[in-house]
Amino acid sequence: MAPPITTRLLDLYRIGPGPSSSHTVGPMRAAATFRADAIDQRIDASRLRVLLKGSLSATGHGHGTDRAVMAGLLGWEPDTCDVDALRVLPETLRAAGFVEWDGDAMAFEPDDVVFLPYSAYRDEPLPHPNTMVCQLLGDAGEVRFEQTWCSVGGGFVHQARELESDPPDLMHPGADAPPHPFHDCDGLIALARSEGRRIGSLVLENERAWDAHAEAGLDRVWAAMKACIARGLSERGELPGGLGVRRRAAKLLARVDDGAVDAAYVHIARAQAYAYAVNEENAAGGRVVTAPTNGAAGIVPAVIAEAAERLGLGAGDVRRALATAGVFGALIKTHASLSGAEVGCQGEVGSATAMAAAALCEILGGSPEQVEYAAEIGM
What are phi and psi of 193, to 5 degrees? Predict the structure, then answer.
């Protein structure tokens, strides 16, 4: 019998900078863990180097992977880092020429994050399309310590060796079984049906069994989602990147508030404005919540925020909505993938749409079967 899913809601909902959970949040987390492991092992080395392969390399500087890696090597974390300092970090490190390393200095410059051309690894089977190799080098350039990391979507990262055995849930192997265990959607719906419970309530009970502060964590996630919507609606002008794309969220919302949208469409239009606000903040490198990825971060908060305002939802309602959305994200992660580099847009926008549809159906009082149908139609 397959083990139960133990992916936590706060694993799925990660707060971090844009523009990509797999290219920004994940690499920052991987580099920070590499730093901690290397310092803990007291490796004698003189220089740092990180080799980017696959999609991490192909997207170049546009996804900010180089900045994210630099931040991780400094020990920065996605949910607390200064996003303004992150934007100028290459210039900062180019001037310094080193990073602080356990009370000492380790030689490092922005060019030490190498975007490898495809020809450099053409004959190498990558463990995942998003692969990076972190290295500590000796005085002669020899490798003293090395880890290969894979950013598998939604900010989740694993060392390449962890993916070789392909266990069903890499997040918390050996974790205690939750009070309401399930491995797939059939099991989840059967549990809810047999116990006469709502899906969100079952998932929250599992979360509380693992972490007494889980609901407080969800409240922080919800606060970050709302703050991101507010920031996105307050900003004007062009997005970074050189393509001249202008922000549209504030104008979209103004049309709704001015009555320029048909009454039958107004709720959808408001949610669309909120989604644009989050997506534009993500594109600008602002702080968003993976839901389940940065690339699709706007959909879940937009749908829940619009419903919360219109229906006067309380904190408990929002937690159940986030829990319902999150469990479908965990199901998709376990049995397919959230990585756009691996499975395309359906892994990101399709997953987010399924999550948001499930959450809205839960909010509106749908049965477990109806919530499942909503998620399936969305996907």
Answer: -65, -45
Residue among 56, 61, 111 at smallest CA distance from 87:
61
Q: How far is CA 227 from CA 96, 222, 234, 256, 288, in A?
A: 33, 9, 11, 20, 9
Residues 6+ apart with CB under 8 A from 258: none
Which of helix, strand or coil describes residue 50? strand
Dihedral angle sign, alpha carbons of residues 65, 68, 70, 72: negative
Separation between Cα atoms, residue 241 and residue 268, nearest integer Å: 29
- Gap between the Cα atoms of 304 and 322, Å rounded: 8
pLDDT of residue 168 exceeding 60, the answer is no
What does DSSP assign to residue 74?
Answer: T
- Going by C-alpha positions, the residue among 118, 124, 123, 141 that lies closest to residue 54 is 118
Q: At residue 15, what is the residue type? A: I
**Range 213-231 average pLDDT:** 97
Three-state secondary-structure class, residue 336: coil
Residue 341, pLDDT score = 84
Q: What is the Cα–Cα distance from 265 to 262, expressed in whole angstroms?
A: 5
Taking the CA atoms of 112, 115, 118 and 122 in sequence, report the sign of the dihedral they define: positive
CB 252 within 8 Å of CB 269: yes
166 band by pLDDT with thresholds 50, 70 and 90: low
Query: What does the angle CA 176 – CA 178 – CA 179 come to, to the nearest 5 degrees?
Result: 130
